[in-house]
Amino acid sequence: MLVLRRNQGQSFTVGDAVEVRVLQIGRGFVKIGIIGPREIEVVRTEIARLNQNALWKASGESDETLKELVSHLRLPRKAK
Amino acid sequence: MFPGSRPIAFKDNLVPPSDTALLATGENAEILFPEGLPGFVGSGRFVLVYSKEYAPVYFLQSASQPEVSLPVVPVQAVDPDYNLAMSASDCELLGLREQPCLGGNVLCFVVLVLASGDKQSACNLMAPIVVNPVTSLAKQIVQFESDYPSVFPLASFQ
């Protein structure tokens, strides 16, 4: 893994098309700005991983787990 | 609407029925993620598979990769007061002319991650999947300004 040290307001580029800028550094977080073509998709890693972890694996165990869960999930009745 | 699709049909057009079902047609509906679904490369074409057996859970299944199938549930089943926020560009992407309204002009689902090992079942409230049933366009939209967690344990539901 390439490691860069950047300060607030500084940036770096990835290839020719994408610039990544450090907008703000706070306690335990950094705010990042990304400048690049719209067709290049930017995805939060944890969202992609969660989707992959959610893949349905057809098995008796999954089936039982889901059935138990849905027995407790109810859509609220619409107010009349 | 993208080629080959048809609108997601509701009873009373866009108004969800008054009982517990949000999509009461019992039919599958094809939807398109123009920007794709995070975590999965390839086509953004998916099918919302209705299963009476697991209602109100649906399966979001890739049209090109049948093995890619995610259980999703209308967010109202987890949080009836869920506050959905969308940017103007996201509204434009889905073909929405007005602000999103749950149970009105949009469908909103959260992805379920089922219990496995010592991890309990959870859902992703931070990034719901929003569908415009008129255009059949969808996007997983991160709620930037909210405190909704990406892993919301569903222990209290069991």
Secondary-structure map with pairings?
The complex is a heterodimer of chains A (80) and B (158).
Chain A: E1 11-14, E2 18-26, E3 29-35, H1 45-53, H2 60-70
Antiparallel strand pairs in A: 1-2, 2-3
Chain B: E1 29-32, E2 45-50, E3 58-62, E4 69-74, H1 88-94, E5 107-113, E6 122-123, E7 129-132, E8 137-140, E9 152-153
Antiparallel strand pairs in B: 1-2, 2-3, 3-4, 4-5, 5-6, 5-7, 6-9, 7-8
Describe this entry's structure for a reader.
The complex is a heterodimer of chains A (about 80) and B (about 160). Chain A is α+β, with helices and mostly antiparallel strands. Chain A has a domain at about 10-35 and about 45-70. Chain A has helices spanning about 45-55, 60-70; strands at about 10-15, 20-25, 30-35. In chain A, strands 1-2-3 form a three-stranded antiparallel sheet, with no helix packed on it. In chain A, a hairpin with a 3-residue loop joins strand 1 (about 10-15) and strand 2. The longest helix of chain A is centred in the last third of the chain and has 11 residues, at about 60-70. The model of chain A has no long low-confidence stretch (mean pLDDT about 85). Chain B has about 160 residues and is mainly beta. Chain B has a single domain (about 30-155), classed as BH3618-like (Roll), CATH 2.30.290.10. In chain B, about 5% of the residues lie in helices and about 25% in strands. Chain B is built from one helix and nine strands. In chain B, strands 1, 2, 3, 4, 5, 6, 7, 8 and 9 form a nine-stranded antiparallel sheet that branches. In chain B, a hairpin with a 6-residue loop joins strand 3 (about 60) and strand 4 (about 70-75). Chain B is globular and about 45 Å long. The N and C termini of chain B lie far apart (about 40 Å). The interface of A and B includes residues 53 and 77 of A.
